[in-house]
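Case study.
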Amino acid sequence: MIEENLLLILVGLPFAAAVAASTVSTTAHSAAAWVSGLLLATGLMILGVLHEPISQGEVLRSSVRWVPSLGLNLTFRMDGFVWLFVALVLGIGILVLLYARYYLSKSDPVPRFYAFLMAFTGAMLGMLMSGNILMLAVFWEMTSILSFLLIGYWHQGQAARDGARMALIVTGMGGLALLLSMLILGQIVGSYDLDRVLAAGDVVRASPLYPVVLILFLLGCFTKSAQMPFHFWLPGAMAAPTPVSAFLHSATMVKAGVFLLVRFSPVLGQTDLWFYLVTGTGMLTLVVASIIALFRHDLKGLLAYSTISHLGLITALAGIGSTGAILAAIFHIVNHAVFKASLFMAAGIIDHEAGTRDMRKLSGLMRYMPVTGALAIIASGAMAGVPLLNGFISKEMFFAEAADWHNGTWLDNSLPWFATLAAIFAVAYSIRFIATVFFGPEPTQLPKTPHEPPSLMRRPVELLVLTCMVVGILPGLTLGPTLNLAAQSVSGPDTPYTDISVWHGFNLPLVMSLVALVAGALVYLALGARISKAPEWPPMLQQLRAQRIFERFLLMFTWVLPRQIHRLTGTEQLQPQLRLIVLLAIAAAAAPLWGVLRQAPAPLATDLNPGFALMWLVGAVCAIGAAWMAKYHRFAAVVLLGGAGAVTCLTFAWISAPDLAVTQLLVEIVTTVLLLLGLRWLPKRREEIEVDKLRPAKLRRIRDLIIAVVAGGGLASIAYVMMTWPLIPNVGNWFLRNAYSEGGGTNVVNVILVDFRAFDTFGEITVLAIVGITVFSLLRRFRPAPESIALTQSQVDLEEGNLADVLLVPSVIMRWMFPVMIVLAAYLFFRGHDLPGGGFAAGVTISIAFLLQYLAHDVRWIEARLTVLPTRWMGLGLLMAGATGVGAFLFGYPFLTAHAQYVNIPLIGKVPAATAMLFDAGVFSLVLGATVLMLIALAHQSLRIARMRERDTAAAEKEAA
Amino acid sequence: MELVLSGAIGILAASGIWLLLRPRTFQVIVGLCLLSYAVNLFIFSMGRLTFGAPAIMPRGGFVNPASYADPLPQALVLTAIVISFATTALFLVVLIASRGLTGTDHVDGKEP
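After joint prediction, the assembly is written out as follows.
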């Protein structure tokens, strides 16, 4: 039990660090580094506690139900392999934090760096510990996105932006491929649980979809681990700050790909296809990247290609997939992380203290920084595979696998030769790194005088290099048990224990190592001087730059093709777009219904009431009239629109929908007022527009009329057929039966809105709030057309007095209506749960009450006496509705679960008191706020214009004077 | 009754769609309003026509769902009325702002 919680805490720690780091001030380097470092160190301690059960061969699991209906649980699991990997990530993470503390300059924003770095660590741990393959894909994408943010940390530079974008596109696409492969894999196995997938290797390999799964899976792994031909993003990512490179390209990001390869090798591996694809790609990458690395002039560029090459080595081992190869792969993952992190940090120190990373300028630095130089030399030795350093042992194991393991294919037979070739170049570029930077003549072209870095900045490098040496001399004692444990958890519990030692006698792998060391030195001696003067690319491979191909694709797909498609199909006019939408809607309805739409055998029919028919005769005239008048007689159109709305409202009342009738009536009033307020700002339109009389305009109108009639006729026939079919019992019956017993209200429509489907209503009022604020902010920047500013005669009359002078009696009545309407609103609100009404209707009623006051007097008079703070009403409403929903958590129920009972109030009697009422109060408050905000914002425009005009006149007078 | 109501839905929808395809912003906003009436009535009518039996329940006891109006379409339409009101308000303000910025009330922001 305790271990389960520890697993959850372990994953949560880096995210907690990210949140903490994001809150510190932009200059608090030490604070952010301390907090993050301490939390990661806590993680290491947790790992220490977990070591006991892990070393017994136990697999720890911890599961939180997340989306059970999709089979998606938040499952974390840890075995020996994951334990080792997590320890590596946390250990190097702490060292990187210490290093970054001194590396970043004072002007670099602190919270962003540490928060991203820690969130990245969290995503990495989540990926490693995922016990569910879908969750694994999610964390995998998360590392891609966070690495994008980290690589683009110095986003002022073009290189950083390009590098970040390239990394995101390549690894993000790979992540999508991985997600697809995981989905198919889950379908084949019948579960998304990692343990069940890992146990189902035979089923997966026998499936006809196996090649598809494998290729998609490998696309994900290869893009992440920078295997050819997807390697080019990694050198581009060198624009990141060096601590980021040291972390991403040693222990984390790129290792995620090889982690998955090793993890899934028992499931997807052991086939010829796997061997050819994985080992083939790995060997190609190993050889070609090691050759390119030799030709790079940028220190970090050399290290980047060396990283790609070493990842190729691990990939090749995963492709071989024998138990020895898996052990060697895991060992090399660790070793490479250790020496490459130290080398990146050393390169960063050189860059920091000498001002450049260009190997053609750097020279003889041993005089200025002897300690850093010595550390870098040892780390490079590990990279080259010099005996008694950690890189040597895992490389020997790789040679042994390449030479001893056989499946008889041509690729297998050529493995030792390619391995030796790559090792030769590895030795050559390692020597070049050391020889050009630390030895040779006094440097002359450096921007700064180099010196040793602060000792604390060097400490991480010292620790890592010490690890290289200790592991290199005593591999069996230090890492032996842990590695075997990790290998057992990948290959199965009966994997034999392999004793890792430095000396295996004089055998073939040792010969290969010695050949590589000697030949590598010779290659450097022969080529070294020429490389420095040559361009940054090996002679033969210049034409084959994957990055350039990628850029051409990017240009094609993000610029050239979209523009062509837009030119062919796009229009910037609204009318064709709307016409297309309407036509598509007609087609979408016609396609499935054509020929199927038929009358029910025994159609439902209710007796025709002549009053209803007459009412709709008026309604139809209103609708057609509104359509007729909307262009030249806007006011008439508004009135007719109101007529159609009123008939709709009466229909609701007629056909047993009192709630709808109330709401429709109130909304109708507010809409009409809004439209009337808006009319003032539209251009004058009394005369005919000349173009309208021409033939094309007439043809257009006829075409649109046909579209409209077809759509209307179609909708009418669907409605008729549907209405006459007998009703199939549906979910509505459940609502009717349970509204009172479950929701504590007798008005089912209201109970559905505030209880059963309260979440929908919550979303709806949020939309209303957003619209209110949008309206308000759009109008704040409003500039009316010049002709609208001039006053009409009737407006001048009105502005001089107020409405009370013209219409005294109505204005007094309007003022007296205010309390009456508030009582009406309260009445509507309180009966809402049991009888037609509710928070929405009450809110609109009160806003109409306010509106009446604005109508009865001029704005200045009313605002001197009455203060409405619409935004506060809105905020209060949203908070109240949200808090009612969250309140259900306190009692252990899901969000927005309501509780209902009746309370006895003296004099009034039994009153329903449900928590849904509180929610409804939130709805009320928000609707009131939003409606008033919109109406007042619109009404205030006249006032603002008046002020603008006064200012203009005053300025004009001043000028005249 | 069914025939009258479906005819009404058709006329409202046709008027609305015709206006939707017109070039002036005010026409489009009136069209949207008419179309929303049509769509609301359409959704509402999916619960079939019931007269004199609103979905107000007795307090407890057996409930025969067949003797009440279907509450579900009503709840949906109630939401739809609110949302269409919000859309109308938003569109009205966009219309006014666009008229102020471009000097025309054509939907494309410029006279053809």
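Observations recorded in class. The mean pLDDT of chain B is 88. Helices of chain B lie at 2-20, 25-45, 71-102. We will return to this complex in the next lecture.
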